[in-house]
User: Fold these one by one.
Assistant:
Number 1:
Amino acid sequence: MKPPLLVNAWHPLPAGYAPGGLSPALPGSQVLLESGCAAALAALVKSAGGEGRIVAVSGYRPHSEQLALWEEVLRDKGEAFTRRYVALPGCSEHETGLAIDLALDDGSEIDFIRPYFPYDGICAEFRAKAAEFGFIERYQAGKEPVTGIAAEPWHFRYVGAEHARRIAALGLALEEYVLQFNRRSPE
Ligand SMILES: [Zn+2]
């Protein structure tokens, strides 16, 4: 088994990386994800009873879009905020097509950078089932020194069910898990 793809400030996307085929993140959504990831997300949302309540805010972003987003947030919110919440262009999981930002649609305006995705109700149901469908909550509180990104309750990463179950059970950040995985199964 291969380790999950690790993308962060210290591990840029492999040169020439291109995502697989893309599909709507959820039925009817304009947000795109790699097709297998999209199918898993739709099944997870359905299983959690979140259809029509949980919405896709941001999924696959081409490099040019990540670059434009970085520059826009930098201009509007300053460097400290940008470094906390927006990954460097070339180092964003959103460029892989395997990461999704979600919001609970409660009728209020959705914050594109920090969507509302609380820890109770239907979102708790979603988290409880996430690993079973291959997703992990990628940037958890307490793991900031390891991930380099502030806690983001809305950002989920698809790694497949087998990895996701192990990561959830071990309580590891993806960085920690990949390190451990590679130590145990050297190539
Ligand atoms: Zn995100």
Number 2:
Amino acid sequence: MSTFLWESIAFGPIHSRRLGSSLGINLLPTDVKICSFNCIYCECGWTLEKSLTAREYYPVETVMQAIEHKLQEALAEGKAVDSITFSGNGEPTLHPHFDQIIEQLLGLRDKYYPNAVISCLSNATQLLRPEVCSALKKIENPILKLDAGTQEMLNIINDPTVPVNIDEVVHELTTFEGNVIIQTMFLSGEKDGVAFDNSTEPNLSAWLAKIELIRPRKVMIYSLDREAPATKLHKFSKEKLEEIAELVRKMNITVETY
Ligand code: SF4
């Protein structure tokens, strides 16, 4: 597959289906994806590096200068910014100073685009680091991944590169007291010769039970959209996603399909 990596710390604003005009932030290198997951569907390709040494991450000052420059540029060009969004080449919360970056970004947002929200697309594996969890609670849109209802399905779809216990992650997600958005990729396929489908039992009921525990502000459900590193994967139709969404709506939780 052709892997896709962002080439700078700050990019855009680009149009996002979910977030409108989104100014992106990539805290990771531009030549390799760094992630605590190795998702079979990742548009950045397989995870070849699971972490960097602390000194290899961009210094906070470098990150903040790049973001401020991009915000100034967008403002000078009269561009709308609805969301300042952490996404990029892997898992943003792996940055050892993620909390400091959030703290300083809140000030930059208020200075340049006070009506913009701050969003973070994260795989939730770092929530057990208290400073990451509390930083994510300070932003408007913590959009956290939960693709599986069981540890077995998480291991198949997300293939963690660090120890990840699904029940511990879900427990941390409950501490957001509803001010969190859960994003879930539904798909089926084959991995290492074993067929899987996270929309069927027992995964689906287990996932719904975890959504009920977390009671997020919103659930975002989607299926494959771009080229994936694994080849034997199947995308679900919008109708199929809507069937799952209906089960979430019955719990009085807002849900959107993409
Ligand atoms: S968590 Fe995101 S960046 Fe990491 S492997 Fe999965 S899809 Fe890719």
